[in-house]
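Objective 1.3, modelling of assemblies. Example input:
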Amino acid sequence: MDPEGVELAALDRLLPLAGKKLLEIGCGDGRLTRALAERAASVVAIDPNRRAIVKARRTLPARRRARVRFDVGRAESLPYPDDAFDAAIFSWSL
Amino acid sequence: MFRALTSARRALADHGLIFNIHPAPDRPVIYCDAHGHRQAVGLVRGSRIRYRNADAAERRAVRRGLFTLRSTAVIPYMHYVPSLRTLRAYLEAEWYGAWMHDGTERRIRALLGSRAVGPLVIKEWVRVSLLRRR
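Predicted structure (tokens):
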């Protein structure tokens, strides 16, 4: 998916990610999360699909595990404290 | 969708940003690369109401003063598949409720031969927006 990198190009142009605490809502199997983890200070990624989250955890490169966390949960009731993130990303998920 | 935006807003710091990317409501076009040309052969059919609703939720959140819209754009997004068979499987697996007319399949076979092996491209328009928490 996205062989031309359209999604990341748009993201890089609009939202500089360096040093940011990110929340990715509807991360699925972590396809985009892996790229976000290369750019941001930390990423919390959430999706209601438990199987997708298991796959996302399994496929995350070991070198990125310290700065990425995957949770199971719904966008409508996010289990995070107020003011916890610098930016949130809905990629094909709103 | 609106509730997802309000929930995200709570989790964001002051002036935090939301980057939202999703398909535009327009129907994607299927192209076939054959005989040195890229030719449109049909549309991906199916409901796009979900994307209209997502746009509406975003507009509502802005109207209610939860966010300001800092930037928006509509850009092309290409999906490449190597054959008609793969295209069918891809639509079934990845595009909820999407389908093609028989006429589209006939046009693809006419261009690529009966096995319909050859480059196919779906061009979809996606909407990108950046919202800032107020």
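The interface with chain B takes residues 1-4, 6-7, 10-11, 14-15, 23, 25, 75-78, 80-94 of chain A (CB under 8 Å).
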